[in-house]
Design the sequence.
């Protein structure tokens, strides 16, 4: 979905910074061919602290996968850096992005709607993004959810846990 993010960046007149390894040079060339030269700023693979600092200076994080991503780690990482997210309403990210609270959603593959989602996400309070990530996806939040689940299992089974039960219900 990098081509979608690049096209939206052009529509909005904003640079698109991309981090990570360029694994498929043919794909990179195809994406670069659909936008004006210089639209994409390739940042490469950076040490964690450097990456977090750069990401934290972004106006919005775009999430544009063409598949149903199960969770959306990169969405949570962006929110933890205080960056609002504009994403397709597809897969896990659409369960993470709360309209007006930590970002904005657009129907999958709709570039005009995604550009509008970026505009809406830019007005989201960055501190609220960080708070949301801490409240819902920090180690403290995870351990609290596990503790609550264990208490429910113990209380619901008279002190003995049943086989085959997991925090995700599986």
Sequence:
């Amino acid at each position: 979905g990098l081509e979608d993010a690049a096209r939206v960046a052009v529509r909005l007149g904003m640079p698109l910074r991309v981090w990570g390894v360029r694994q498929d040079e043919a794909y990179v060339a195809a994406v670069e061919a659909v936008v004006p030269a210089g639209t994409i700023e390739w940042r490469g693979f950076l040490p964690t602290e450097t990456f977090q600092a750069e990401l934290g200076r972004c106006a919005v994080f775009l999430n544009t996968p063409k598949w149903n991503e199960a969770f959306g780690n990169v969405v949570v990482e962006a929110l933890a850096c205080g960056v609002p997210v504009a994403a397709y309403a597809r897969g896990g990210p659409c369960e993470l992005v709360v309209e007006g609270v930590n970002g904005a959603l657009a129907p999958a593959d709709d570039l005009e709607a995604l550009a509008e989602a970026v505009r809406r996400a830019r007005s989201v309070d960055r501190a609220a993004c960080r708070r949301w990530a801490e409240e819902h996806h920090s180690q403290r939040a995870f351990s609290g959810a596990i503790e609550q689940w264990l208490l429910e299992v113990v209380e619901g089974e008279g002190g003995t846990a049943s086989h085959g039960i997991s925090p995700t219900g599986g």
Notes: Strands lie at 16-19, 40-44, 61-63, 85-88, 103-106. The helical segments are 2-12, 25-33, 48-56, 73-80, 93-96, 111-121, 126-137, 139-156. The longest strand covers residues 40-44. Residues 100 and 124 are 6 Å apart (CA to CA).
